[in-house]
Amino acid sequence: RTVSTDGPHNREGLKSHHLADGCNYLFQSGKEYDGIFPVWDWQKIPGTTVAQTGDFESRPHIHGTTDFVGGASDGTYGVATFDLNRETVSAHKSWFFFDREYVCLGAAIQSPSQSPIFTTLNQCHLNGDVFVNGQAVDQGDHALQNVESIHHDNVAYIFPETSDLHLRNNTQTGSWHDINNQYDQTTLSQNIFSLWIDHGIQPNKSQYAYIVAPNLPKIDLPLYTQRHGIQILQNTSQIQAVHHANQRITGAVFYEPGDLQISREITIAVNHPCALIMRDNSLTLSNPKNEMLTVAVTLTRGDSVETFVFELPDGLDAGKSVTQEI
Q1: Which of 12, 36, 105, 289 is least surrounded by CB atoms within 10 angstroms?
Q2: Strand, helix or coil at 270?
């Protein structure tokens, strides 16, 4: 139902192909990406999962091929989801937003491409030292193994399961002419922080999971890591779900009917794909397909079993979240 970025009319926007593919920017000062674009690696746009082909010749002005793209919000907390199917890459990508952090999940990452598939966590201006598992690293290109945390510019990237990552905290070069032929070809250089996950060539059901905690001083990182309360309940092609134990909030994306065990005593089941937030005494649902839908939600709490029916709207309100007290 949407179209990606405009085609390269007047030789502008020559590398904008992946701007509509799930980008996830993080602003604290507002200067993180200021003037970065001539030196940006446009196949490593933050948040995206992209085949590193180096090819920008294909037409960017194209319709999406999936319709399960949207999110749910109860007015304070949110879940966003994106069924990615772009050229040779498919994936289920979801984001879960809480008070102190947000959680990024990817599952069912597949591609027949002969180029490696990367998920980029961030690519912004380098601002100070980069710490890997608490230790500062020199500027350069780094292939990292068994990473538990990365800290840069007062932002922590935390991995519930140790991960292998690529880090570039180094100089990148380029020109405005590369992305807009109306400008000159003067080569510019900037120091850039770039962090990505390499899913390899022709991945089959690859996945990722990481937590982003902005405005977190490095000195507070060890204690935060022990006490953040984030539990990844499921990260599969069927369900992506996160429970925040400290805030007593569960966010879930059901790509198909199914049930999700939140704790030993609490299980939630739905009879249609949907996005969901359960918080205290409320339950919020939406239909990311932006269509009218009736969803039955069965909530089991110990010996208590209750069913709640949600009438999700159509028309101008299609995709809007509906909240019920439970």
Answers
A1: 12
A2: strand
Give the tens place of pLDDT for each residue, 30-81: 999 999 999 999 999 999 999 999 887 666 678 888 999 999 999 999 999 9
For residues 174 and 125, give the distance between their C-alpha atoms in angstroms, rounded to a whole number: 14
- Tell me the β-bridge partners of 283: 278, 324
CB neighbour class for 267 (10 Å; exposed up to 12, middle 13-18, buried from 19): middle
68: amino acid identity, one letter: F
Other beta carbons within 10 angstroms of residue 156's beta carbon come to: 24
**Nearest CA to 238 among 85, 81, 48?**
81
* Per-residue CA distances from 156 to 9, 144, 216, 276 (Å): 39, 16, 7, 26
* Rounded Cα distance, 171 and 124, in Å: 12
The whole-angstrom separation of Cα 184 and Cα 186 is: 6
Tell me which DSSP letter residue 44 carries.
Answer: -
How far, rounded to the nearest angstrom, does the alpha carbon of residue 255 sit from its chain's CA centroid? 16
**pTM of the prediction?**
0.96
Q: Round the CA-based radius of gyration of the chain to a whole number and report it.
A: 21
* Per-residue tokens: 47: 């948040």
Helix (H) or strand (E) holding 91: strand 89-97
